[in-house]
Design brief:
The chain is of the alpha+beta class. The protein is built from five helices and eight strands. The radius of gyration is 17 Å and the shape is globular. The chain binds adenosine-3',5'-cyclic-monophosphate.
Length: 149
């Protein structure tokens, strides 16, 4: 490991998203991942944009409006997986709410990284299921409120 990467790896080790990674894989993610910062109000990804990577929030918070509701994303949470896994344009705009620092993994590295790190793939699956359930419950709740047709 190079001395330059050591503080970067220590920071990534504290992000729950990466907690099961081996030291070698942490080093790899520190090498392939790019840190970026965004100011409050700045879009990080924009709905309908094509291309781009996976984002992991290292600090700050962001909001995403999806399915008629605003969702808040905080440190350790990820976004951008839908366009990558579905080969589709971005499904929503994600906007920085506070000053935000992200680690972004470019599309070309994403699948090989998941295949090498099943624990990260499972974390992403869990997040996707959680989001799906939230939308499902909201639809059911709205339908119940409307009563029988
Ligand atoms: P993607 O479509 O690539 O870009 C916008 C991102 O917003 C999307 O991936 C998800 O990561 C995120 N997103 C979409 N819907 C929701 C939701 N209901 N809750 C939280 N995040 C979401």
């Amino acid at each position: 490991m190079t001395d330059e990467l050591a503080p970067e790896i220590e920071a990534l080790r504290k992000v729950p998203f990466f907690e099961d990674l081996t030291p070698e894989d942490l080093e790899r993610i520190a090498t392939i991942g790019r840190r970026m910062t965004f100011r409050p109000g700045e879009p990080i990804v924009a709905r309908d944009d094509v291309g781009g990577g996976l984002y992991v929030l290292l600090s700050g918070s962001a909001t995403v409006e999806a399915g008629g509701k605003a969702h808040r994303l905080g440190p350790g949470q990820f976004f951008g997986e839908m366009a990558l896994l579905g080969h589709r344009p971005r499904s929503a705009t994600v906007t920085a709410e506070e000053p935000v620092e992200v680690l972004t993994v470019e599309a070309m590295y994403f699948r090989p990284f998941l295949i090498k790190n099943p624990s990260v793939a499972v974390t992403i699956l869990e997040g996707v299921v959680e989001r799906l359930r939230e939308v499902q419950e909201r639809i059911e709740h709205d339908q119940a409120g409307r009563g029988p047709s």
